[in-house]
Specification:
The complex is a heterodimer of chains A (253) and B (361). With 253 residues, chain A is of the alpha/beta class. Helix content of chain A is 38%, strand content 25%. Chain A has a six-stranded mixed beta sheet, with helices on both faces. A four-stranded antiparallel beta sheet of chain A has the order 2-1-4-5, with helices on one face. In chain A, helix 4 crosses helix 5. The relative contact order of chain A is 0.17. Chain B has 361 residues and is mainly alpha-helical. Chain B has a domain at 62-89 and 146-359: MetI-like fold (Orthogonal Bundle), CATH 1.10.3720.10. Chain B is flat, with a radius of gyration of 26 Å. The chains are: A alpha/beta (253), B mainly alpha (361).
Amino acid sequence: MPAREAHPGEPIIELDGVNKWYGAFHVLRDVSLSVAKGEKIVICGPSGSGKSTLIRCINRLEEHQAGSIRVHGVPLDNDIKHIDAIRRDVGMVFQSFNLFPHLTVLENCTLAPVWVKKMPKSEAEALARRFLERVRIPEQADKYPGQLSGGQQQRVAIARALCMNPSIMLFDEPTSALDPEMVKEVLDVMVDLAEGGMTMLCVTHEMGFARRVADRIVFMDRGEIVEVAPPEQLFADPRNERTRLFLSQVLSH
Amino acid sequence: MDRPALPPPAALRSSPLHWVRRNLFSTWYNSLLTLLILAAAWTLVPGLAAWLVGHAVWSGDAAACRAEGAGACWAFVAEKWRFSLFGTYPVEQHWRPTLAMLLVVGLLLGSADRRLWGRPLLLLWPVVLLLAGLLMQGGVLGLETVPTYLWGGLPLTLGLSVVGLGLAFPLGVLLALGRTSAMPVFRALCTVYIELVRGVPLISILFMASVMIPLFLPQDVTVDKLLRAQIGLVLFAAAYLAEVVRGGLQAIPKGQVEAASALGLSYWQRTRMIVLPQALALVIPPLVNTFIGFFKDTSLVVIIGLLDLLGAAKSALTDPAWRGFYREAYLFVAVIYFIFCYALSRYSRHLEAQLSKGRRR
């Protein structure tokens, strides 16, 4: 299914009344959100508030049980063609990197272009080297993930996702598993990506990054969206008591 | 100012005497064990060496072996090695199973080299195995037909094992994938199959394959006895291999599958390129354990009247002229089994080392 070309400002992700349960536990409650092309959204909230589950629903790593999700106008339902079309267009970066340890850095990056997009191997390698350059680790191409530092691994994971030329990138706490001195090198790459016009949804506790990059911050608590506002407004004048409490805790040090 | 890094302290003096003291006499109980083992060797080794070599009878007839004070009767092996190796296969045609075995061993050696892994090698497997089978069977290119009930010895053991594992391994992988699948029907079917087959002894499966399958078939359809045994062995080994592979599948972090799914890879692409390569590398030791066990288990086909390597050697003992030399017969067979099993074991360790090179997290 060809993804429809979206113009700036037009919504490319539409969530409408999304609900999800883990057994009896109501993890997402009536979540509605519309993301425009090129928009950068930061999702924050206490742990267990459903932020990771929310973005994992967008590429069907988790299945929602009620409501609708549309990406580029394609409805996310049980039609495998729809899921494939959306996954091809949505890149994802995980907290624990999830690089393939039995493949080299270059092979990690070329795998999906070669097998999903049927790109010739030489072309995929050239593409991968270009993105490894962009995340500033071209010299590590022939190493195995286990030989790299956490920050380097996460940058490879970003390059791997970019090799599929996605129009949307999902980040699930990309810096939470990193040693403090490596957080910056990953955030720098993400800022660079944001400035390039990528549509981004990012679950993170890095409020400095949120302030600098986000168009809107989504605050979630107990499975629902409590407040959505541009960073300057949210930080200066949160409307909701729960937001206020959360921000006072994360910004206090 | 930076302090220079210091070299490690000079290694402690290491002489043979030092080694002996550190490894053999480090504590009083180590010393005691060392002395006990030396004493045991002192009493056992000379007698064993005399039997194996010193007083052994290398040639001649059974009478020479039965002489007072005679050691191992290698003359028996010299007389009967052909029958032990080839069973009842016609003697003047022995070059055919020999060539067939060389083909199969060549295939195994080729498959051991990781640089050759790929589609051509995969296609070569059925071709070589069919060729070896055809060579044994004959009936083409002017080769005299040798029916399977005359096959025996090492070619039979090797054939049952290699063909058996060659088919049981992919079947086992599929069963393991089925048992861990998200689809309840597949999962239930595979679980029932595995538990059922693992729950009965191999002997009963061989009996069933040999006795019961013909009962279910129409009168005029006959399935070759060797083929029935082979099917029984494959079905049995697949259940065991499935559980070994499942152990590997469960050790792969969920994040690996999620990352592959997020990239848009399909179920079979994820399984083939991400999950299985990692899972199988993890279970090489138990996998080889199962392979070796299976190789030796093929000797059970003797109970349905097939003469494998062990069966042929035992059968050689029934020659009235050579009755009683079972130690030599079993030793001869044991050495052959050991060579194959040890080679497989060494190879698996080599492969493990290769696959883990630079890949540990």
